[in-house]
Design brief:
This protein has 14 helices and 20 strands. It is α/β, with parallel strands linked by helices. An 8-stranded mixed β-sheet has the order 3-6-2-1-9-11-12-10, with helices on both faces. A 4-stranded antiparallel β-sheet has the order 13-18-20-19, with helices on both faces. A 4-stranded antiparallel β-sheet has the order 15-16-14-17, with helices on one face. β7 and β8 form a beta hairpin. α7 packs antiparallel against α8. The two termini are 40 Å apart.
Length: 412
């Protein structure tokens, strides 16, 4: 069981979490609990590090920011003990969770022997998420959102039946319910669909944790910490059929405002031009997503358009200006008033026409498409930011994702 920061925000909420843990234990399950720091605590600790030294030592940064989860794990263990349960907290170095690197370390190995001994004695292990230990014995952290990854990795190491992720949402929805009140909660979704949703704006789960679960075929369940309602199960393609669901072509619609459009004009028509642009961006670790280049007539100059994360825009423009003379393009312009809207679903693999329906639906509402990218189970379009909510709503309806009961309620 993994509980996020909002679930651990204060003693009353920690007591509520303890009650959920007790319920699982009373049903005869062997339980390990991974906890995040209290909501806002990690941000506070990161800010303190920046104030202490703008160019801080990553080793000492990890010592500071790992303390948030240490506090909540101790408090939850105390609360469970007060309920008469055999609970004890175990730091990342006590298991140990072996990790490489600082501030965004990767998990190398987890020794599950300690957990096995806890379970044999009928105990409950409470473990700080986000925390590991390096080969040198230093505290390591796994990057922001790393508690999800901790939980999945521990579930794999302990050969758990399932990893439950408790959050401030009821599960995975067909789109953001704040934009589309008729959005439906999904009973089940595949790892691939969840990875795509997470990568294009859905913030329910950290992408890294879903990838790890997929690699080891570890079933995940997303549940609400605050309401006793069924959640969403995330499983492999083979298990999804067990739900006897009528497989829709599109599972969900996601949007991401973290995109910036870059346009280069006057590119010379010669081999190596595109490589001269994207090579330096790759070396600077700038991710490029959508790419559009119109094929010029022989000897004429062309135009190239692509997207980068908003946070990388200034860096990208700086790198492009450095190679402007060598590549030979004329101008570089940018636009941050854009949003990426994506349709995701494994049903796309065997059905043509998804992209065409998407383009037609947007065209009928006068929404201009600036760029397009596709994968086997995803179609993404870049549209003006002012059309974000309209685009999400009309696509949600066009692909039959609206909740029929919510529609009936609205009509009544």
């Amino acid at each position: 069981m993994k509980f996020g920061g909002t679930s651990m925000a204060g003693i009353e909420r920690i007591r509520h979490v303890a009650e959920r843990v007790r319920r699982e234990a009373q049903e005869g399950n062997e339980v390990a609990v991974v906890v995040s720091a209290m909501a806002g605590e990690t941000d506070r600790l990161v800010q303190l590090c920046k104030e202490a030294a703008p160019l801080y030592d990553p080793r000492e940064y990890d010592v500071v920011v790992a303390s948030g989860e240490q506090v909540t794990s101790g408090l939850l263990a105390m609360t469970l003990q007060g309920m008469g349960l055999n609970a004890k907290s175990y730091m990342g170095w006590q298991l140990p969770i072996r990790a490489s690197g600082h501030s965004a370390g990767l998990i190398d190995h987890i020794d599950a022997d300690v957990l096995e001994r806890v379970f044999e004695q009928g105990g409950i292990a409470v473990i700080p998420g986000f925390q590991g230990v390096t080969d040198a014995g230093d505290v390591a952290t796994l990057g922001r959102g790393g508690s999800d990854t901790s939980a999945v990795a521990l579930a794999v190491a302990a050969k758990a039946d399932r990893c439950d992720i408790y959050t401030d949402v009821e599960g995975v929805f067909t789109t953001d319910p704040r934009i589309v009140p008729r959005a439906r909660k999904l009973e089940a979704i595949t790892y691939e669909e969840m990875l795509e949703l997470a990568s294009v704006g859905a913030k329910v789960l950290q992408t890294r944790s879903v990838g790890l679960a997929m690699r080891y075929n570890m079933p995940l369940q997303v549940l609400s910490s605050f309401e006793d309602k069924p959640g969403t199960l995330i499983v492999g393609d083979d298990k999804i059929e067990e739900f006897k669901m009528e497989r829709v072509l599109v599972t969900g619609i996601a949007h991401d405002k973290n995109e910036a459009l870059v346009t280069l004009t006057g590119l010379p028509d010669k081999p190596g031009t595109v490589a001269g642009i994207f090579g330096p961006l790759a070396e600077a670790n700038i991710n490029v997503d959508m790419i559009i280049q119109a094929a010029p007539r022989e000897g004429e100059k062309s135009e190239l358009t692509f997207t980068v994360p908003n946070a990388s825009l200034a860096h990208a423009v700086s790198e492009l200006e450095k190679v402007k003379a060598d590549v030979g393009f004329e101008t570089v312009s940018t636009d941050t008033d854009v949003v990426k809207v994506s349709a995701i679903g494994v049903g796309m693999r065997s059905n043509a026409g998804i992209a065409a329906r998407m383009f037609q639906t947007l065209a009928e509402r006068g929404i201009n498409i600036r760029a397009i990218s596709t994968s086997e189970i995803k179609v993404s379009v870049l549209v003006p930011e002012e059309y974000t909510e309209l685009a999400v709503r009309v696509l949600h309806t066009a692909f039959g994702l609206d909740d029929a009961e919510a529609n009936a309620g609205a009509a009544a």
